[in-house]
Amino acid sequence: TDPVANVSINVVVTNKFANVANTYPVTAPKGMPIFGVLNQLQDSNQLNFTYSISKSYGIFLESVNGLAGSTENKTYWELLSKRERKTTRLNVGIGCYQPERNENFIMNFTTWA
């Protein structure tokens, strides 16, 4: 494989309430949506995630490693990108977002309350 065609990223799972972070280093083809990257990690038994598909909005992340967001508890998985010390909230979901080389893709369990 052409190394230029691959990107090395870290998938980071954080939990605002438990103050924990797990990092999963992964190499994926350049241009692969993060959904494919998460499936790679799940297929290698490193990470577990579930999702639903909305006809209007596409793939929606529901749970990571057994922890699901809850409307009742006002919790959800916030999607963030950290590159060169700058963290930004993503405005697209896991079906569309394409991570870049040396990026930290962060799934942060948090609240909107």
Automatic annotation (TrEMBL):
Gene Ontology terms: biological process: cobalamin transport
Molecular function in Gene Ontology: cobalamin binding
InterPro entries for the chain: Cobalamin_Transport (IPR051588)
One GO term describing the cellular component: extracellular space
Source domain of life: Eukaryota
Record protein name field: Gastric intrinsic factor
Species per Swiss-Prot/TrEMBL record: Culex pipiens (House mosquito)
